[in-house]
Write a structure and sequence with these properties.
Length: 143
């Protein structure tokens, strides 16, 4: 199924799971029952972080036209500090990931994940990111 959405990432593996829930509201004064179908698409986007420790930002995930909720996990496998910047609908969240550490962040919406590695320019920063996205769509049908 396609929702007309574009997701751009670097070095990703995507797994799509589809769950459907149906709820029905009926009003006594109206003849028709409105049935609202709520579809949840859960996707997992993961990849490898590999960049120089030169304080230049690198975008690893970008959502276009949608803002899904997400659980973001970032792992730092090097001896330099990483700084993750997660852009949401309303603000930007910054989190420092120390040497050989891992952090998890739950956000109500995500539009971009950017990583900056701090250190001298001769080192290479390595790690992994794993983003579990939850995209909800609503469709109303009349019977």
């Amino acid at each position: 199924m396609s929702l007309g959405r574009n997701v751009q990432v670097n070095k990703q593996t995507t797994i799509v799971k589809v769950n459907t829930k149906i709820s029905c509201r009926s009003r006594k004064k109206k003849k028709h029952c409105r049935r609202k179908k709520i579809k949840c698409f859960c996707e997992e986007v993961c990849g490898t972080i590999f960049q120089k420790c030169d304080s230049k930002p690198q975008v690893y995930f970008r959502a276009v036209e949608i803002r899904p909720s997400a659980n973001v996990k970032i792992q730092n496998d090097t001896n330099c500090d990483m700084e993750a910047m997660i852009r949401t609908r309303k603000k930007e969240i910054t989190q420092v990931i120390g040497q050989s550490q891992q952090v998890s962040i739950v956000v109500p919406s995500i539009s971009r994940l950017t990583i900056v590695c701090n250190g001298d320019g001769s080192q290479v920063c390595r790690g992994r990111y794993d983003i579990k996205l939850r995209i909800r769509t609503h469709r109303t049908h009349r019977h």
